[in-house]
Structure formats: structure tokens, C-alpha cells
């Protein structure tokens, strides 16, 4: 794997963003709106909730972490879509660029964009609502890593779906986080869900993150075993998503689908 090729993928995204404010604004705008909106909602709920229940830390923390996960996923898919929209995807692979180098380049781009969004969310949460995650200690880093890894896996899966079905299939990708959020138990305990939903939730790394977050905020200890399970599942999904992307890419090359790649190609 060549660092120069990976750097080229990142550099291309940098040039695209540098020349377009409309590409830079979404990096932090929607995150800022979510934090402000939910911040005031939780501030109001705190005034009518039972004493001792810190809704601001629980709900606003969940919003912040979930938004971070979405930024990671969309950081990868949007970078991929840029190549699709510009009909540049085929040009990239006419070079010696390999699949692992391309995917690592997308991941590196997502790291940069998601960190920007996270920094803005933490700044607003701290300055406007006085919320700090430093009291959670090292566990907050573990939660962010699990969400980051799972975001990578879903981002690669989203790219795979569009690669197979065509650019119009991008509309299948945007709703994925919303579809997963009920199963991930972002805003409520896992025990709230019916049994069949809990079974699905056990296969989703975010469910372990948000259960652990609520445990720490309520004064409990860090649940290390669920963290390990969430981490292992995230790594497994990254491997499976990467393997699926490679398989779909090779099939597209052999069938000639890649050469006919166009906005009308959804089949």
C-alpha cells in the first residue's frame, strides 16, 4: 500500500472543498443545528424531570455521539459520491491505484471531516450548555472509536451498494442511520425494545456504546465487556464491508458494468 496514492485521494477531496463553500458548510452546520436544538430541548426537560436525572448529559451526549457516527459514515460515502457525480471513478482505476489504497484514502478523508464536526459539537455543547465529557475519562474515547469504526464499515457498505446499483442508488444510503437508530437504542435503554428488536440490537456496535454511556452518566462503572464486543463487531463489519466492496468491484470490471457506469445505470 503506497502512501502517495492515499494522499492523492485525500488531496483531491481537499481541493474540492477548498473551492466550494457549499461542500465545507455541511461539515459543521447540521451538527451545530442538532446540538443547539437538542440542547434547548434537554434544558427544558431538565426543568420538569425528576430531581437527580441529568437529561442534558444523557440525551445531548447521545445526540453528539450519534451525529459523530453519521459524520464518519457520510464522510466516506460523500467522498465516493464526488467521484461518481464527476464521472471520475473509472479514471481513478485506470491508474495503478488499488482498492485498499482507495478505501484508506476515503477513510482518511472521513477522519478529517468527522473531527471537524466533532470539534464544533463539543465546542457548542461546552460553551452554550456547559456539557463536558472529560468527566467520563478514557471511556469516551473508546465510545468514539467504536462509533468511528462502525461508521467506516457502513460507509464502505454504502459505497458498495452504489457501485453495484449505480449513482441513483445513493438515495438508499442517506436513510441508513435513521433506519438503524431505533435498534441502536440511542435515546432509551435497550430493555425498552421488544425482544425481537433487542436481538437485532445485539449485532449493532452502537447499542453497546449508548448502553455504556447511560451507565456512566447515571453513576455506574464503565462496562468493559460490552465495549470489547462492540469493538470486535466493528472490526468484523469493516472486514466484511471491505471484502464485499472488492468483490463487487471485481465483478463490475469483469462484466463491463464499470465501463458503462452512468446515472441511469441502476440494475
Summarize this entry quickly:
The protein contains 11 helices and no strands.
Query: What would you report as the Rg, rounded to the nearest angstrom?
Result: 20 Å
Q: Please write the string of helix (H) and strand (E) elements.
A: HHHHHHHHHHH
Major β-sheet, in short? Answer: none
What's the overall geometry?
Answer: globular
Cα distance spanning the termini:
32 Å
Query: How many structural domains does the protein architecture include?
Result: 1
Structural write-up:
By secondary structure, the protein is mainly alpha-helical. It has one domain (3-255). It is built from 11 helices and no strands. The longest helix has 32 residues, at 224-255. The radius of gyration is 20 Å and the shape is globular.
Helix and strand arrangement:
Elements: H1 3-18, H2 21-24, H3 29-48, H4 55-85, H5 89-92, H6 99-129, H7 139-165, H8 176-184, H9 195-201, H10 205-217, H11 224-255
Helix pairs in contact: 1-6, 3-4, 3-6, 4-6, 4-7, 4-10, 7-10, 7-11, 10-11
Keywords:
single chain; 267 residues; mainly alpha; 11 helices
Amino acid at each position: 500500500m503506497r502512501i502517495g496514492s492515499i494522499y492523492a485521494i485525500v488531496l483531491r477531496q481537499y481541493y474540492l472543498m477548498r473551492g466550494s463553500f457549499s461542500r465545507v458548510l455541511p461539515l459543521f452546520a447540521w451538527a451545530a443545528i442538532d446540538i443547539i436544538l437538542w440542547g434547548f430541548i434537554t434544558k427544558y426537560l431538565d426543568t420538569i424531570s425528576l430531581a437527580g436525572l441529568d437529561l442534558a448529559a444523557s440525551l445531548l451526549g447521545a445526540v453528539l455521539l450519534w451525529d459523530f457516527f453519521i459524520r464518519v459514515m457520510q464522510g466516506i460515502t460523500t467522498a465516493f459520491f464526488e467521484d461518481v457525480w464527476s464521472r471520475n471513478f473509472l479514471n481513478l482505476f485506470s491508474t495503478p491505484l488499488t482498492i485498499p489504497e482507495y478505501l484508506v484514502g476515503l477513510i482518511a478523508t472521513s477522519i478529517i471531516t468527522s473531527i471537524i464536526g466533532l470539534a464544533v459539537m463539543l465546542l457548542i455543547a461546552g460553551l452554550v450548555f456547559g456539557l463536558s465529557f472529560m468527566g467520563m475519562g478514557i471511556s469516551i474515547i473508546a465510545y468514539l472509536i467504536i462509533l468511528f469504526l462502525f461508521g467506516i464499515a457502513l460507509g464502505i457498505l454504502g459505497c458498495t451498494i452504489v457501485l453495484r446499483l449505480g449513482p441513483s442508488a445513493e438515495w438508499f444510503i442517506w436513510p441508513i442511520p435513521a433506519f438503524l437508530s431505533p435498534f441502536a437504542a440511542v435515546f432509551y435503554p435497550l430493555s425498552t425494545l421488544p425482544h425481537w428488536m433487542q436481538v437485532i440490537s445485539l449485532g449493532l456496535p452502537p447499542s453497546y456504546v449508548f448502553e455504556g454511556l447511560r451507565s456512566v452518566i447515571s453513576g455506574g462503572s464503565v462496562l468493559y465487556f460490552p465495549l470489547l464486543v462492540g469493538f470486535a463487531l466493528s472490526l468484523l463489519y469493516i472486514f466484511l464491508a471491505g471484502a464485499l466492496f472488492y468483490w463487487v468491484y471485481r465483478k463490475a470490471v469483469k462484466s463491463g458494468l464499470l465501463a458503462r457506469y452512468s446515472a441511469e445505470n441502476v440494475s
